[in-house]
């Protein structure tokens, strides 16, 4: 770390009260919520009650008509709480702060004003250079949900979505095991005198933990595999009941997968592609009508036979195994996902207003600072910079020089 950077960090660690004196003025924010145009994105970042809270605090909210429809929040629910409903997307992009779910498309970036604040998801692996340069040209300050941390230093949005995806994936498995979808005709779990269904979960992260919890609650017999003893131990403690855990050993894993009724793949890569740990040969030996759910499909998937599907045609069969490989599982339960997200985003927006702008918030909260990947058009995220062979700017220095 350079001397300058050290000094900047020290400045950031000075008593916050002194620093926030000039940030005491309360800002009225102008917040825009556009309708999502990315394929099958059903979530919306704020619920009508959150909008009511923001408006009560003196902020303005403009919403593109139909933005909440897919999550069953209708225009009149928002307008009754004081939001302005517009039919022209360009009107929404006149707001000072744009909050949405998916990363903006080039068409949307072109509508943005210079110096806007953008809150959206943005995985480095999915970003293109054109999008990045367009945002930089507009001098946008952009925050990525994937990097957002809470006071406990947890990746808060990632964690919330992983909890939803973990529990939902087990319910999806239950659907495809039943006769309704030409499954095996099994009930997930078991009843007295009937052996329980067997489920294998790959990965003991948040998705794995919530999948195990849901499956155990339904009475299934669960086996969890992960390469990390630490994660397996944490899952064992968090789930509470004794669950079969094992490090990934090819022979044990193969035997478990071939003999089970459902296998859920939830192994995440830090950056880049998730490891592919189940071969086509193993899948071909699975029981007919077994269900395979690949939660890691957005990172390439952890089964050799996986291919991306969507909510309209979620499954395909290969070797008579039902494959479910939809990348955006949380959109199946868009309303629940929206409630989870609005609880994270509303306090952030209120804080921006209370502290007199996003700069003071970045100054005061390391978890927010961690999520900023563009600051007034300067790239500050190392992962994105590495991807495009660029040099990231030091956010601490940028903030201090602007204060």
Automatic annotation (TrEMBL):
Keyword Ligase on entry: no
One of the GO BP terms on file: L-alanine catabolic process
EC number: 1.4.1.1
InterPro entries, alphabetized: Ala_DH (IPR008141), AlaDH/PNT_N (IPR007886), AlaDH/PNT_NAD(H)-bd (IPR007698), NAD(P)-bd_dom_sf (IPR036291)
Main EC class the enzyme belongs to: oxidoreductase
Highest taxon in the source lineage: Bacteria
Annotated GO MF terms: alanine dehydrogenase activity
One GO CC annotation: plasma membrane
Signal sequence residues: none
Domain Alanine dehydrogenase/pyridine nucleotide transhydrogenase NAD(H)-binding: 177-325
Annotated ranges, domain Alanine dehydrogenase/pyridine nucleotide transhydrogenase N-terminal: 32-165
Annotated keywords: Oxidoreductase
Similarity remark: Belongs to the AlaDH/PNT family.
UniProt protein name: alanine dehydrogenase
Organism of this sequence: Parapedobacter composti
């Amino acid at each position: 770390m350079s001397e300058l950077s050290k000094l900047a960090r020290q400045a950031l660690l000075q008593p916050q009260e002194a620093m926030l004196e000039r940030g005491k003025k309360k800002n009225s924010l102008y917040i825009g919520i556009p309708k999502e145009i990315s394929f099958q994105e059903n979530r919306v970042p704020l619920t009508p009650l959150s909008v009511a809270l923001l408006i009560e605090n003196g902020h303005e909210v403009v919403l593109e008509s139909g933005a909440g429809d897919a999550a069953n929040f209708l225009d009149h629910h928002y307008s009754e709480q004081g939001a302005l409903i517009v039919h022209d997307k360009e009107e929404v992009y006149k707001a000072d702060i744009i909050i949405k779910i998916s990363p903006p498309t080039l068409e949307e970036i072109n509508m943005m004003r210079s110096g806007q604040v953008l809150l959206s998801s943005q995985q480095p692996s999915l970003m293109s250079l054109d999008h990045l340069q367009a945002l930089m040209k507009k001098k946008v300050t952009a925050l990525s949900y994937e990097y957002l941390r809470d006071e406990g230093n947890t990746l808060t949005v990632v964690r919330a979505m992983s909890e939803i995806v973990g529990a939902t994936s087990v319910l999806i498995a239950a659907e495809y095991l039943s006769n309704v979808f030409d499954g095996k005709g099994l009930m997930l779990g078991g009843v007295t005198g009937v052996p329980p269904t067997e489920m294998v979960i790959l990965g003991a992260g948040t998705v794995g933990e919530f999948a195990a919890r849901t499956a155990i609650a339904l009475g299934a017999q669960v086996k969890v595999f992960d390469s990390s003893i630490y994660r397996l131990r944490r899952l064992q403690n968090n789930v509470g009941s004794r669950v079969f855990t094992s490090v990934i050993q090819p022979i044990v894993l193969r035997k478990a997968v071939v003999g089970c009724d459902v296998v859920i793949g939830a192994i995440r890569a830090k950056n880049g592609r998730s490891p592919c740990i189940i071969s086509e040969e193993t899948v071909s030996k699975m029981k007919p009508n077994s269900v395979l759910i690949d939660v890691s499909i957005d990172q390439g998937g952890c089964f050799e036979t996986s291919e991306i599907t969507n909510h309209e045609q979620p499954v395909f069969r290969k070797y008579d195994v039902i494959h479910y490989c939809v990348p955006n599982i949380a959109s199946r339960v868009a309303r629940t996902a929206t409630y989870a997200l609005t609880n994270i985003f509303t306090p952030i927006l209120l804080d921006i207003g209370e502290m007199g702008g996003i700069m003071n918030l970045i100054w005061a909260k390391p978890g927010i600072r961690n999520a900023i990947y563009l600051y007034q058009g300067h790239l500050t995220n190392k992962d994105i910079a590495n991807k495009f062979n660029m040099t990231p700017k030091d956010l601490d220095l940028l903030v201090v020089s602007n204060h």
